[in-house]
Every structure is written in C-alpha cells, then in structure tokens.
C-alpha cells in the first residue's frame, strides 16, 4: 500500500476527532498546515501565473508576499487531495446549514 501524504492523514485525523464530519473550510485549514513549503510555493506560483494569463497580463505578475503564495499553494494542494479522496469514495461532501461539510464514508481510513 502506498503511503498517503501527511496532509491527507491530517484530513482523516481531524475528521476522526470530530466524529467523522466537519466543515470543509476547517478541514482544509488544518490539513494545509501539513503541506511542505516547496510544493506549496510551486503550486501557488502556478496558480498566480494562470490567473494572470486569464486576465490578459501574462508578463505582468504583481509582487506578492512569498507567504501568501505558499498559503495559496497549500490550500490548492489540500483541496485537490480532498477532491481525489471524494472521487475514490472515501469522503463525501454535503451541505449543512448552507455550508459545505465533509464526512468519512470508508471506515478503514
């Protein structure tokens, strides 16, 4: 079995501490803290370049604080991981009180 990344383990640990369900926003924040800065910076910088191209200014990237780029990358990596966990059938996204929540479907996780 392939080892899961630390941030995916953090998702399951956080949900287990909350009886298997929690708001998506909180789950993503907790898991993002476990994403290493290197991959997070690369992902955040790629998002910044994509957004700039979409707005028509590919060569005009604004100067941003490196921490905001890393933070954006961390959140993006975690949300992609949650998406793939949902696609694999281990997590479920649902609405509660008008907000997105996550719950564990696979009890073996």
Notes on the protein architecture:
With 109 residues, the chain is of the alpha+beta class. It has one domain. The protein is built from four helices and three strands, in the order αβαααββ. A hairpin with a 2-residue loop joins strand 2 and strand 3 (99-104).
Counting DSSP E segments of at least 2 residues, the number of strands comes to: 3
Strand arrangement, major sheet: 1-3-2
Strand-residue proportion: 5-15%
Oligomer: single chain
Query: Compute the gyration radius: what is it?
Result: 16 Å
Low-confidence stretches: none
Number of domains: 1
Structural class: alpha+beta
Shape: elongated
Number of helices: 4
Helical content (DSSP H or I, runs of 4+)? 55-70%
Ends: how far apart?
13 Å
Strands, helices and their partners?
Layout: H1 6-17, E1 21-23, H2 24-32, H3 37-54, H4 66-87, E2 91-96, E3 99-104
Notable characteristics:
109 residues; alpha+beta; single chain; 3 strands; 56% helix; three-stranded antiparallel β-sheet
């Amino acid at each position: 079995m392939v080892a899961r990344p630390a941030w995916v383990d953090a998702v399951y640990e956080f949900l287990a501490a909350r009886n298997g369900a929690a708001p998506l926003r909180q789950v993503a924040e907790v898991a993002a803290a476990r994403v290493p800065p290197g991959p997070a910076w690369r992902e955040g910088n790629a998002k910044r370049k994509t957004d700039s191209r979409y707005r028509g200014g590919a060569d005009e990237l604004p100067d941003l604080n490196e921490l905001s780029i890393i933070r954006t990358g961390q959140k993006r990596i975690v949300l992609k991981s949650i998406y793939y966990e949902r696609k694999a059938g281990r997590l479920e996204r649902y609405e509660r009180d008008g907000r997105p929540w996550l719950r564990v479907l696979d009890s073996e996780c």
